[in-house]
Specification:
- Two copies of one chain form a homodimer.
- The first copy, chain A, has 461 residues and is of the alpha+beta class.
- Chain A contains 18 helices and 16 strands.
- In chain A, the strands form three sheets. The first copy, chain A, has an eight-stranded mixed sheet.
- The longest helix of chain A has 20 residues.
- Chain A is elongated.
- The two termini of chain A are 30 Å apart.
- At the A-B interface, helix 1, strand 1, strand 3, helix 4 and helix 6 of A face helix 1, strand 1, strand 3, helix 4 and helix 6 of B.
Amino acid sequence: MRDFLPGDLVRRQFVAHRIRQIFESYGFLPLETPTIENLSALLGKYGDEGDQLLFRVLHRRDKLARALEKEEITEQSLAELGLRYDLTVPLARVMANYSHLLPRFFKRYQIQPVWRADRPGKGRFREFLQCDIDITGTKSLIAEAEVCSATACALQSLGINKFSIHINDRRLLRSMIMAAGIPAEMEGTALIAIDKLDKIGETNVRKELLNRSISHQAMDSIVELMSSEPQHDSAAALTSIQEKLASQNDANDSINDLRDLCALLEKTPAGPHVKVDLTLARGLGYYTGPIFEIRSPDFSGSLGGGGRYDGLIGMFFDREIPAVGFSLGFERLMLVMEDQGLFSQLQIGPDVLLCRFADVPATHALEIATDFRRQGLSVEVFPETPKIGKQLAYADSIGAKTAAILGQSEIESGEITLKHLSRKQQEKAKISEAAKILKMWVTSETDTEADSPDDAIDSTE
Amino acid sequence: MRDFLPGDLVRRQFVAHRIRQIFESYGFLPLETPTIENLSALLGKYGDEGDQLLFRVLHRRDKLARALEKEEITEQSLAELGLRYDLTVPLARVMANYSHLLPRFFKRYQIQPVWRADRPGKGRFREFLQCDIDITGTKSLIAEAEVCSATACALQSLGINKFSIHINDRRLLRSMIMAAGIPAEMEGTALIAIDKLDKIGETNVRKELLNRSISHQAMDSIVELMSSEPQHDSAAALTSIQEKLASQNDANDSINDLRDLCALLEKTPAGPHVKVDLTLARGLGYYTGPIFEIRSPDFSGSLGGGGRYDGLIGMFFDREIPAVGFSLGFERLMLVMEDQGLFSQLQIGPDVLLCRFADVPATHALEIATDFRRQGLSVEVFPETPKIGKQLAYADSIGAKTAAILGQSEIESGEITLKHLSRKQQEKAKISEAAKILKMWVTSETDTEADSPDDAIDSTE
């Protein structure tokens, strides 16, 4: 679990703000769900491994006393609440609870932390931020296209341009598994193994499949089906698999959908990044159609993923609501951006540090600070009165852009000393005109060096 | 525990954004701490009642198994982690862990949820947002003044102007308790009772004090000390108590501090709201100097509170670091704002809903959406192709400001139909010029009706 000190946090706020802006430009609306969910809503949605990674909230008071009186005390008897594990299951629950209050095509984004009692690793934490977009209520491939396009656009807005969006389809995987002669009941097992092709290599996947009593022959077939020449050519991959599965009528829908999806994405920000990848499987059980995953040469592992899950909401509800979503791994994006120096130096100091000589009453300082703030400056008042040199050194140490110095004799003539700290420029000004000058100094810096004027945070190189 | 649907959430985001802007204008820097803290850091800081309201995280796997094997299984043996209960104790822990990385006068704001297993009530929830500012590292009263001023300014920026900031001092309370002849070891008990004067009235407080073996005579004294005439006159209250406690030398420091604090605040946003209130006690044990509380005639109970706590950080650390803070109750602010109609109607729909006739390829729609978004519009693409009337009705239902309609024949001539939904205005335009027109429509609305152009959210009446 991590504390975020101001220097780190402004970077995180900057990235979250950018992502949010892009999601909103696609018409996604914000949603937030509670940290604590009923375990009954969470269990059974993430596989056995997921269930074990849930943080559970201990019963309290009477409920705990009753649980402790029982003969058998178990994990189940001690808790009925758990911490949010992802943002998809809460969305499904929200759809079930409030669908009458929501637009028919509910496009929501959600940027909130989730908790997993996982072993920490690079870019893996026990509390981490997820950025999800989902579109519910339609089976149209436009929904798939929009979540892929928005995700690609979000990455680009952060300066991340080297990435590929691997796409495949769960239905196509099923067709391939059937064509390879793997029994239907082994589909889940086979998918989990295939999902690791990329990570552990073909030899190890073969071993795993054999362990799970899937034959060498079936393995040969599935590997043959999945490999296409030339690589990196989505259209060729689709043509090749369509020929190979010519006898399998049910494969046509998914192959045509993948082809249509590529076409839909062509003129969007996702276009150049899309790559049909017949080996992509995605671990989670609830996908029912197209699936996506973002990979980058700059990060081992995925930067995000998603897909269509037309059955999940129905698990909370009396009717099926189709849905498709994409989730970005915020912590991994932060790592990639740091590795590649994509953060401009974000300034965290105030516009002005207000200093004063010991003989100046503090009331004056606070009055002037109030006035400066009303005029749009961020002002910190130095709370004590050591020598001015010490106060100015502090101004430098906290990254203040300017300092304003109050002396008793100057106050009497209505004046104040202003100091531009990086330029080492200093001038006396009328107190009534000081804010205007300081704003000019501060703004000119922002204008020339910042990335964009509507950034959440001033950003200077 | 609450879900926040888009309509509610944009209001919350709007309020949080405003508060953040004000805090930043005072030079406060953001901090975030993890949801899960060690129980050892939390227990014993909030009183017995607080300890009972903590959410505890159940041990997992081996640790749980070991705990369940023991002869005695207790709340303590089943959990060592708990959920954040406030933002002050985490700050104290952060100061202890990272003080070498932080400015000497660390001014931090923190806007994060906290969890209390409390009985829910009006403005009271089990997961709720707190907005805290604190200044560490100085005993200067300027720190008190700055947190009071920033808090008042934040309320005003939300349109809340009817409130008072009650101030008192823990040291002065101690002087009064001693002067009333209440034994030192009963100070805590007496404080808790006095804290309720406002809520349950003098008669009931007397009963409580008697129950705790504090005499009628002591009670008479303390009530007499605390009452001052005329009411609502801070200077008179201070003069009166100074006279009454003339024999009590140690009272002068706190009385003079309160007088100085009033003077410091006079020309700040807090000035007209400050009221010395000798009955203000504040429940928490860790305060050591001035204490504050915000009351409003529009809400029973406080909207926030704070004070100086020079000993708390030392509980985590090898040395004392003085500190003072103010915490705003976000949920209560939301209630007051809603009751008083202080929310302008925040718009959540997209700038443009892109509609198309069934014969227009979806690829065209996505290409045009991409272009519009690049030009700064938020665009939702209607994912299916029912009759245009239905698509336009949907545009109205989600609060879209405009609609753009693609027809096959128009596309061939490079045109598109644009519709201003509230004005019922419609015109044909070149596709290449459409974004410019739509932006004009959308911006003119924002300019004339929005509160301020740099708001996080478009706000239209």
